[in-house]
């Protein structure tokens, strides 16, 4: 902001505080305790025939005031929407009318009045009385330009919600999506559970964790990167279908599709495999789109995305063959894999395995081309330490990821339930960690012990709720669908 704008803002704030001082001198309560509300703005609009010339009581924020001599029109905004107020001196008295004219945009008021329609056909409320409920001490952004600065919008989400109604609608849709997701899973027999947010061992995913310290126990704990291992322990314990919707925390880079804390839905089902998880994923998401948006075809950044089930299915190797024009199924060694990668301009770091090279080629040459919902199946074992290996080719696992518009939104396995094999996989991860890979998983002996009691064949699925909501609300950044995204602290200046 320029110095002149800051000076204007400060002057306006001073004026509002002066008004507050005057109100207090006159014993006028500028911060009321409550106001009895009988209706909301949207009800007045939708039920006009029923409410015409009936008394209503509303509360909301003044977002516009237009004065015409001894009468004024104003816009009152509440959670449901906007309604026009008609405030006339003859109806409320000269003193109260002067008081109304002295109100500022952003002030919260309660009004009592009757519903009517103006000569121009505008549904309005003829105000009989009003109360100042909260004095706003900061001016709102200028209405013709609004609040455009994204940094301010994300930091001051409360202001963003006040002046940008479409932002509020995004979060209403988010709430509906999560509500319907719960309903769908519960109707399918899944039980919602809660597992720890602080873990003694960071596990369940390949990621760098946040570390905290518990003073009473004098031990470090990790904010969870995934609930996976705890949820699978519940399957061992006899639950057959469980799910959890909650936050995960990963100490990684930030981008338009990454926030350090994010919301996921993770579920596990006994006697199921990754094919069952594919069917569940496509049916769940197509249901959410239809139920919340009333369509399964949505527009995202000027591209139509069709979530209608069934979705395309293709193995990782075949996807590379289709989009990058190289065939990894014809080779077996890491050396040959490096040569194939180089032939399409991919240069993996030295020392990677056959499967790790394949995964890098996929990420660099294929992901961005997966626009319509697609299941990429059969991931290399090296990048899937918790997935069951394939009987027909032990280099790969029964795992898939779902992609939309080049971005992963879901990850699922036929879960590894052989405790000895799981221990070997963990040991490999520990070697990688000791070699400097901070994202490699740790050894979890309690999880191995749980598997030794016997986990039935199980399908597991995780869906990134934030990314899914980005697509269903046409939001270009993950920060647009998280109410309070992680930001750098504001400078003192």
Automatic annotation (TrEMBL):
Subunit note: Homodimer.
Required co-factors: Mg(2+)
Molecular function via GO: ATP binding; catalytic activity, acting on a protein; lysine-tRNA ligase activity; magnesium ion binding; transferase activity; tRNA binding
Biological processes, Gene Ontology terms: lysyl-tRNA aminoacylation
Lineage: Bacteria, Bacillati, Bacillota, Clostridia, Halanaerobiales
InterPro entries found in the cross-reference section: Aa-tRNA-synt_II (IPR004364), aa-tRNA-synth_II (IPR006195), aa-tRNA-synth_II/BPL/LPL (IPR045864), Lys-tRNA-ligase_II (IPR002313), Lys-tRNA-ligase_II_bac/euk (IPR034762), Lys-tRNA-ligase_II_N (IPR044136), Lys-tRNA-synth_II_C (IPR018149), NA-bd_OB-fold (IPR012340)
Family: Belongs to the class-II aminoacyl-tRNA synthetase family.
Protein known as: Lysine--tRNA ligase
Domain of life: Bacteria
Keyword Protein biosynthesis found: yes
PROSITE patterns per record: AA_TRNA_LIGASE_II
Residues involved in Mg(2+) 2 binding: 408
Subcellular location: Cytoplasm
EC number: 6.1.1.6
Keywords per UniProt: Aminoacyl-tRNA synthetase, ATP-binding, Cytoplasm, Ligase, Magnesium, Metal-binding, Nucleotide-binding, Protein biosynthesis
Cofactor note text: Binds 3 Mg(2+) ions per subunit.
Keyword set includes Cytoplasm: yes
Protein species of origin: Halanaerobium praevalens (strain ATCC 33744 / DSM 2228 / GSL)
Cellular-component GO terms for this entry: cytosol
CDD domains: LysRS_core, LysRS_N
Record domain Aminoacyl-transfer RNA synthetases class-II family profile: where: 171-489
Reactions the enzyme catalyzes: tRNA(Lys) + L-lysine + ATP = L-lysyl-tRNA(Lys) + AMP + diphosphate
Pfam families: tRNA-synt_2, tRNA_anti-codon
